[in-house]
Amino acid sequence: MPVGLFRVCLLVITAIVNHPLFFPKENGTVPENTEEIIQKMKAREESLRLEQLRLEQEIADQEATQKALEKAAVVVEESKEEKVRWDMWTALSMVVFLLIELWRQDFQEGNWQDIGGEEDDMAVLGKAFKGVTFPDKAVLASFYEKRILGTTGDMARMREMVEGFADDLLEALRSVCNRDADMEVEDCMGVGSMYENWRVRKPFVCDLIVPFAPPEPYCFRCQTWCSGDSSPPDEQGYGTIKVCRADEDATGCICDKTKLGEDMLCLLHSHVSSARPSSEMEDLLCFKNTQYLDADQVMKWFQIAVTKAWNRISHKYEFDLSFSLLDSPGALKIKFKSGKSIAFNLTPVVQYENSDVYFISHFPRSSLAADIPSSTHWFLTFAVYERRFIQLVSKTLPANACHVSCLQILSFLHGKQCSLTGPSGLTNYHLKTVLLHLLQARPSQDWAPEKLEARLQDMLKFLEKCLHEKKLYHFFIGNGKVPAELGFPIIFQRAEPLNLFRPFVLRRDIYRRMVDTFHEMLRNMSALINEYTVHIPLAHTNGIRKE
């Protein structure tokens, strides 16, 4: 800017010096071409004036640019300071969050299975029960006899019929499959509410699982989320199934991990045997270009195999067989000529090592399938151990114990409420998990038949506590108190407890609907039960009483 001012001053001095009036007329002689000189001087003066204006504009532009740069520097400096402050707050928040998370995990490890102090919790909780009329023993007994026992009498006959037909269908399936190339199908097993004798709502549906294995010389190598490195939260409860040759090392030869060079050969594996064509792995129902079993491919294969098997034996039966649900590939329906029908689920599973834990391809009538990370991730089901645990505990309970009755009544109330207000995230499996926890926590004599009312209240209050805390832990995973008689795999007992309500922490809309459904069920409980109960004097009905 000083250079510009100097140039302006120089031009002004030059203009003054060269101005014709600077020299007096009497001291000089006027040339003959005076007019021409005057015109040139005017032109020169005009050009100098324009140059002066241009320089002034240039100086103004430079000053504006300088101010803009200074302002930008100030903004950048302020943003840096703000970023530093933001980074400090972010780091501080992360530290606080990690400390809270570590405290929570330590608290859970020491207390998640400790339900011994349940009486204190019950005194604090139960807010949702205020003003709710709870049916007494006489009403519950009448309701159970009329509504539950009156509709479940034909369950045993239905199970027997479905199991017999399923065995025949699987035998035909084995005959139509290529024993050298197709999967080997084993005998089916019944699981779930129909085989634990607590299903109450129609239509009755039998759940059958069918273990299968690959053809020789292949085998399945299963890996769970808790057997290797730490898995993301959305993959907890899942595992993968790798298809390998039976003579292949589980950890893999070093020739698969290093480059031996063109002039070196592995003494254990030839180049021909190590390279598996992509089509070969796809024939083994693996995901494209991988060795991992694909649940979608398995279900397609199973549907085609079941269809071929039915075509072979359909002439023996006087009914039709069809797939009943598009979103449940193993859902089958038997249709009689009279118009009646029987539904059942036939689902292929893979056995985990030598245990009765199974990888299941999908869950019939469940929203869990929508949360599976990918088709190569298989959910683990502990249904066989759940059935065995209930049978084991039942042997130690009093005659006609009320544990199954509690689950049946609660399942009926929940189903009725969902039919009124629509489905929620709460499922019958959550209700059964609550019962399993209470069966382990309470002494055997607490399940006597005359204590049905008290135990039903315990289940409702325990469920309310879990909904309030958004925590309902899987009964087997992380439970070190599982009876040794069950032979349950130790790897799952030592795993971190699995919160079945974790998906609802992030999906607040579903959680809100689930809580609302639970509260509505409590308010409508007496009306729902009285609807299916013979008339009992009003004096027999009272509020909640502590045992």
From TrEMBL:
GO terms for molecular function: protein kinase inhibitor activity. The keyword Coiled coil applies. Residues 38-72 form a coiled coil. It is a single-pass type I membrane protein. Residues 404-477 form the Mab-21-like HhH/H2TH-like domain. It holds the Pfam family Mab-21_C. Keywords: Cell membrane, Coiled coil, Glycoprotein, Membrane, Nucleus, Signal, Transmembrane, Transmembrane helix. Residues 1-20 form the signal peptide. It is found in: Cell membrane; Nucleus outer membrane. GO terms for cellular component: nuclear outer membrane; plasma membrane. The keyword Coiled coil applies. Enhances Ca(2+)-mediated inhibition of inositol 1,4,5-triphosphate receptor (ITPR) Ca(2+) release. Belongs to the ITPRIP family. This is Inositol 1,4,5-trisphosphate receptor-interacting protein. It comes from Machaerirhynchus nigripectus.
